[in-house]
Amino acid sequence: MKKLLLQLLLVLLSAISFAQAPPQGINYQAVARNNAGAALISTSLTARFSIHDLTASGTTVYQETHAVTTNVYGLFTAKIGMGIPVSGTFSTVNWGSGDKYLEVEVNDGSGFVSMGASQMMSVPYALYSQFSANGPTGATGPASTVVGPTGATGPIGATGDTGPTGAASTAVGPTGANGPTGATGDTGPTGAASTAVGPTGANGPTGSTGDTGPTGAASTVVGPTGATGATGAGLTGATGATGVDGAIGLTGATGTAGSAGATG
User: Fold this and answer.
1) Which end of the chain offers a freer environment for a tag, N or C, measured as fewer CB atoms within 10 Å?
2) How deeply is 127 buried, as exposed, middle or buried, from its count of CB atoms within 10 A (0-12, 13-18, 19+)?
């Protein structure tokens, strides 16, 4: 694991009185360097701050982490008390119950490395005023006319937690212009055949009379012979009168005798 060295440049401990409501915090600023002493430039780190009670290795009364990114000088800043809590509650730390020690650890992805713990001196103990009775308000001091130099721009802070979703708006915005017609989508699959039977349609109009078809071919089938009709009952006619005998004819001449035939 790569050893990190942390060079403390400046720690500004905010003096927060009881009359000053949260957020409470302690400004912290330091330069991160590698074991060769070179500043870690534009590097994402995780800083972990632990407040120990009574001694440097005493009970941890509060601990939190910060995701920080060093600038071009290796500098990073954090507000102790406004990070992601790991244990304890910063606003309930009893600053008046004894010495407090701040331990700083840094993780560049290889695991946390402790930079040691140092005693928190008189300034942060102004936080103890919220546990004591309110004393009289002192007179307002004269306004300072000295303008300090502008400090270097600090690194961009970590993205805060997403706030709760706001109530749904009941206002109706104006109707937007019609968008362009989208491309024709793919033809969907053929649906299953319907088993429902639709209603019977109304009767259509009567069609016109069709043309006469052609005459069929003559039949070759001979029909059966009809039955013989009955004999008619005709009347027998009357017998006619006997006719008159005719005249006797003349006797004819005797013919010539024929030759004798041969003797047998």
Assistant:
1) C
2) buried
pLDDT, tens only, 108-126: 999 999 989 999 886 554 5
Helix (H, G, I), strand (E, B) or coil at 125: helix
| 56 in Cβ contact with 117 (< 8 Å) | yes
Buried-exposed string 25-41: b where 16+ CB fall within 10 A, e elsewhere: bbebbbbbbeeeeebbe
| Residue 124 φ/ψ, nearest 5 degrees | -65, -15
Burial letters for 50-63: b for 16+ Cβ neighbours within 10 Å, e otherwise?
A: bbbbeeeeeeebbb
Q: How far apart are CA 168 and CA 177, in angstroms?
A: 24
DSSP conformational letter for 134: -
Task: Give 248 or 109, the one with higher predicted confidence.
Answer: 109
- pLDDT of 146 above 60: no
Distance (Å, whole) CA 106 – CA 114: 7
| Phi-psi region at 37: left, alpha or beta (left = phi > 0; alpha = psi -120 to 50) | left
> Strands of 75-80's sheet, edge to edge?
4-12, 26-34, 75-80
Strands 26-34 and 84-87: unpaired
The single-letter DSSP state of residue 60 is E
d(CA 11, CA 82): 15
Rounded Cα distance, 97 and 62, in Å:
14
**Cα distances (Å, whole numbers) of residue 174 to 44, 156, 179, 181:** 45, 38, 15, 20
State the Cα–Cα distance between residues 96 and 89, nearest whole angstrom. 16
Radius of gyration of the chain (CA): 69
* Other beta carbons less than 10 A from residue 75's beta carbon: 21
φ/ψ of residue 213, rounded to 5: -75, 165
105 φ, ψ (degrees, to nearest 5): -125, 145
What amino acid occupies position 230?
A: A
